[in-house]
Recover the amino acids of this structure.
């Protein structure tokens, strides 16, 4: 796996500067979806498109699905920050921290 650099911008600083990399998998079929930089504490409710790296699925459409067409979320514009993101469905994905 190539070395991934953390994005260090205003969004990361607004959430306390704490970031971690997560590997995202489909909960239904366990297929790999992408690598995601999660900023700040808390659960994974949405995935900002600018934080997704190495996507194995298309991130251009309105629906966020795994390679086996299981629906994981839908595209939204997150209002407070005016950023495009995917709103994840509850128990749609499994995440694994990269050390």
């Amino acid at each position: 796996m190539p070395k991934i650099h953390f994005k260090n911008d205003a969004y990361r600083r607004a959430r306390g500067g704490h970031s971690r990399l997560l590997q995202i998998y489909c909960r239904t079929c366990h297929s790999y979806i992408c690598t995601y930089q999660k900023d700040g504490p808390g659960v994974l409710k949405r995935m900002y498109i600018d934080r997704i790296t190495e996507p194995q699925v298309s991130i251009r459409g309105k629906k966020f699905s795994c390679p086996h067409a299981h629906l994981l979320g839908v595209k939204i514009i997150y209002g407070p920050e005016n950023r495009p993101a995917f709103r994840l469905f509850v128990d749609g994905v499994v995440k694994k921290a990269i050390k």
